[in-house]
Structures are given as C-alpha cells and as structure tokens.
Amino acid sequence: MTTMMALRHPPVAGETAPTAAPVGAETAARRATRYVFAGIRLALGWTFLWAFLDKTLGLGHATESKAAWINGGSPTKGFLAFGAEGPFQGFYHGIAGTAWADVLFMVGLAAIAVALLAGIGLRVAAVAGGLLYVLMWTVVLPPENNPVLDEHLVNAALLAGLALVGAGDTWGLGRIWARLPIVRRQPWLR
Q1: Span 148-188, pLDDT tens digits
Q2: What does DSSP assign to residue 21?
C-alpha cells in the first residue's frame, strides 16, 4: 500500500530540498499559521471587548466614570463631536450622541467581541467589524500618520483574512459552530 505524498514549497536559498509529507498532514508551518491567526483573532476580539467595557463602565482608560454609558454618558458623542475632521465631519457631528448611534455602536462592539473571542460567526463579524473600522477611518480624514492608510483599514483587512482562513477553529468554537444545522444550511453564518 502506498501513501500519497505532497511536496512542500520549493527550497529557499540556504534551505534543504523539499520534504515529503502525507497529503492532509499538518505541517509545522501550517500549525504555526493556525496559532498566529488564532492569536490575532483573540487580540482583535479583546480590543472590541475592551472598548465596549470601557465605554459602558467608564474604567478610566479612555472613558471616565462620569462619562460611562451606565451613568448616562454617550459612547459616540466625544469622538464624533470633537474628533471628526475631513469630508464627513458634518455627518458625524450630526449623529454624535444620538441614542440610535450609541445603541448600534455598543451592540456592534459587544457582538463582534463575542464572535471573535468565541471563534464563531467570523464571516458576519468580519463584515460588521470591517464596516465599523472603515467608518471609524472616515471620521478622521486624512489619517494622522499617513495620508491614506491607518490601523483601521489594516484591522478591517485582518478581519476579512480571519474569516477566510477559518481562524475560529483554533482556540475557539468554530468547528462546533460549523456543525450546527443552521450554520450548515446558511454557510454565511460560519
């Protein structure tokens, strides 16, 4: 009986000849890649969760206790009313502090955080989180440190990548989630 073999990438200068590995076997590079993407997923999930917690409870990092959402503060007013610059300034000033913007923003932060941290619904989280990042990018145009690109666009691209590689399967509940009947019927929920 023969085992099917697959060759790795061609050798890079200074590297030995390609080695054979059984088809379907996980290489060390593939395993490392899974863990790197899982780490990025968890890191981005934490940034969404932290923003939600700080704005809700006023933990004193970016939001003082008196400005906390639970104390009647607005999670959108400060940034949108005083930080908006550029071509969309008027739009953002107009929605700053409105109840619907506050609720939508906070529900979005919480839902994206849960999805990323749990490793479930990454396709939906990538779209929602990517949209949120792009909207935050448009609040301050041009960006402060680069005429076009900043961390908001990079993070939006990372979210898309996480969904494409199934980053919820490592250190997450992605595999279990994918087996749910509704997710099998509606793959966009994956």
Answers
A1: 999 999 999 999 999 999 999 999 999 999 999 999 999 99
A2: E
